[in-house]
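Might I ask for a little of your time on a matter of protein folding? The record follows directly beneath this note:
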Amino acid sequence: MQCQTVLPGTECTFWGKQGCIFSEGSCQTIVENCEGCERIVEGSIGRVCSVYPAPAKKWSLGICNFATHVKVEIKTEELKINPLKASKKAAGKKK
């Protein structure tokens, strides 16, 4: 349904027949960590997230999974292989 309070006319998954069904009753403004994200839109209460109504909750557990301005580095560790086990494994395959 379409939001009729903070972002009038935009599709909102939290808008129901009784109004906003979000636990706080309305979207909340963005937090400092959201600055630079492409999902920020201007609403009737100020700058809000177009995807999630409570940005502070998303950032409380770490990086927001909707953030477009944050790059997550994936650490890949080089596996250490025991040379003795590797030689036995290779010898076993020759049979």
Observations:
- The first helix runs from residue 55 to 60.
- Residues 15-93 form one domain.
- The chain has one domain: 15-93.
